[in-house]
Every structure is written in C-alpha cells, then in structure tokens.
Amino acid sequence: MSRMATTAADDLQDDFALDEHFDPDDFPQAAQSPESPTEPEQNIAKKRKQPAAEPTAPAEKKKHRKEAAAFVVPTTSPEQCKMWNTHMHKVYKSLTQLELADIAITATNIYPTDLDPAEPTYFDELVASALSTGKANKKVMLGAPQVLVLCSSALRVLELVRRLRPVSRRAVAKLFSRHVKIDVQREMLGKSAVDVAVGTPNRVRRLLQGGDLKLNRLRLVVVDCWQDHKMRTVVDMDDTRDDLFAIWRDVLLPASKNPDYGFRMRLV
User: Fold this and answer.
1) Residue 224 in contact with residue 161, Cβ under 8 Å?
2) How far are the Cα atoms of 50, 121, 136, 223, 261 from residue 218, in angstroms, in the given order?
3) pLDDT in tens, 65-120
4) How far apart are alpha carbons 232 and 230 in whole angstroms?
5) Looking at the whole model, is its pTM more than 0.70?
6) Which residues contact 200 (CB under 8 A, 6 or more apart)?
C-alpha cells in the first residue's frame, strides 16, 4: 500500500490564489484576531484599571462654644451683698458657714445712691458724689484718697484714670504693678495728696498693708465689674479675686467696724 504524500503550506505552488468570492465576514471567528479580547473581557479590563475610590473621612462636627453671659451688676443693696458674698464663698471654700457669716458684707456696707446705672455718666457721677467740695489747696493727709476704685487690669486702670481726671481736682493715682515698682508708688503716696486712687487688687492690697495707702479720708470703695474680652471680671478672675476679697476680709472689714472710718462699698 503506497503512502499518500502530505502537502505543507510551504509546498504550495507560486500560482496559488484565494477564491475571488471569499469573504472574511462569512467567518466571524476567523476574522477576529485571537489576540484582541472579546467585549466582556474589555469591560472587565476597564474596571480593573480604575483605581479604587478612597474612603471619605467623616465630616467634622463643629464645636459650638457656649458664650459666657454678660455680667449684670444688681442695683439694690441686698442684691449687691448677695452677689459679693456668693463670689467670696467660692474663694474661701474651706471656711464654715459660721466663719463665712462673720466676713460677709451687709447692706450697711453698701454705698447708697439714687443715680441711674443705665446713664452713660453714672460712674463719673457716682465718684463725684463721694468727693468733698472743700478747697483744693487745703492741707489733707497724704496718701489718703476719698475714693478707691478696684479693677481687673492695668489697662483698665489707665482707662478709668483718664475718665476720672475731670472729676477730681487733684491728680488721680494709678496703682498697678505692670512696669511700675511699688517703691515708686510708695514715694508718690508719701508726697502727694490724692482724692481718687485707681488700682488692681494685688498692688492696692500691698500698699494698704504697708500703710502707704491710708483709709482716713476714704468715703467710697468702687468695685469695677467691667468684663474683658474673655468675659471675666475682677470678682471672678483667678488673677484678681483672691487679693480682692482679702482686701475686704483683712483690711476694709476690720476698718468698717471702727467709728473713725466712714467708707462704704459699691459694685458697678
């Protein structure tokens, strides 16, 4: 049996030609290149190429700070006493109720006035009401003001000194520790007659304890409850309240029981 000869593609004769009626579209599988992916594969490839979406961070909740309420100074004597004693009790937490009652301020210690606190000139008129109308050149005790104003900061002291200059016939003493040595103020008080003194609690306390600032002519002690940009006042600020209430407990309260002194206090 004879074996049939096999014909390879390379063995085709040079005159081999395709059928002129051959149409590749009639054979879709043959027309499509095996290297090109099918439609579903293309979609899968596109999905794989897309980067994974990064997780979005949760929106931060805005923190709403609770705004401090405006400090309202009461006008009646009983209400002023209540406010003063309430803040003083926060400083002397270790004292018993009986001990707190011994240092409490009473209505008899409050400076009486019929002035309207709503008026813009209330502060000025209050200070003027406590100044005597005697002659300015009259000899008086040195370092003994008629009005003592206690406020929270050196800047507030300077503001009130400028405001009260037209009210006082003599120079207004400014008593604070910022950039001013206490010896300079002691010398000033020892040589000057003053009607109005404005200062911060710490410096005023030291001058009172040293005897440089005297109470002999004192008629009015003003506690200035002005609020700073942080809504703090002299009665509740950490830097001032300890000295403020110590002035009352250690100096003003004992002096108020002495008939030789006739001063009273007012919160404004």
Assistant:
1) no
2) 85, 22, 16, 14, 7
3) 556 678 889 999 999 999 999 999 999 999 999 999 999 999 999 999 999 999 99
4) 5
5) yes
6) 150, 151, 152, 153, 154, 157, 175, 176, 177, 240, 243
